[in-house]
Design a protein that fits this description.
alpha+beta, 5 helices
């Protein structure tokens, strides 16, 4: 555990009072006796408190989709601005490009042969159009090593307090590698639900606001 993150754990009052790092918008669930050491749980609580003050971010890398029969690997460029997302998916061989953008209750998918499509559910829209499963509602939290909305089961940590994975919203989540830093950020994220899976390998992270792109 790095020294700055340890200081965050020792100074929860400072976290709560810092104007640029507000506490989570939803309370953390009570500690389950079956879960790991309370110190590791406190590390996760501090992590979520810190990221609550970082609603804008960008990741770049690769995403691999599989449904038990077919698979596809694309380049991914995901920009998040609060609750709004802008996701570019580019096939490395054909150069085919899709853009999925939206926010709570709406989504638009561009790059389809038949033209743009809109729907209230981004995950369902992408799944119906491409066969790819991308849990858009939960991934903004998951890709940063945070819990999404809803109950969590089978939560586990490594010795440094980084999450190894958990189960949420019908998905099994695993963290297989991390970028070093304070706090560290996931490098390899694997999510699976039944026969569907998505693997994200992050090559670059950027935390903070960026200019909107056309």
């Amino acid at each position: 555990m790095t020294r700055p993150l340890l200081l965050l754990l020792l100074l929860p009052a400072l976290l709560a009072g810092c104007a640029t790092r507000p506490p989570p918008s939803r309370p953390l669930p009570a500690l389950d006796p079956a879960w790991p050491d309370p110190v590791l749980w406190a590390t996760q609580a501090a992590r979520e408190a810190w990221f609550a003050g970082q609603p804008d971010w960008r990741l770049q890398g690769r995403a691999a989709f599989a449904d038990g029969r077919e698979s596809a690997t694309v380049q991914i460029d995901w920009r998040q601005r609060g609750a709004a997302f802008d996701i570019r998916l580019v096939a490395p061989v054909t150069g085919r490009s899709l853009r999925l953008e939206g926010g709570p209750g709406w989504a638009r998918l561009e790059g389809l042969a038949e033209g743009p499509r809109e729907a209230p559910d981004a995950e369902q829209l992408l799944r119906e159009a491409t066969g790819w499963a991308l849990p858009v509602a939960q991934l903004p939290a998951w890709v940063r090593g945070l819990r999404g909305d809803g109950p969590v089961a089978a939560l586990a940590f490594d010795a440094e307090g980084r999450p190894l994975g958990w189960e949420q919203a019908g998905w099994q989540l695993e963290y297989r590698d991390w970028w070093p830093g304070d706090p560290p950020l996931p490098r390899r994220v694997f999510a699976r639900r039944d026969t569907l899976s998505v693997r994200i390998v992050v090559s670059a992270w950027n935390l903070g606001p960026e200019q909107a792109r056309p």
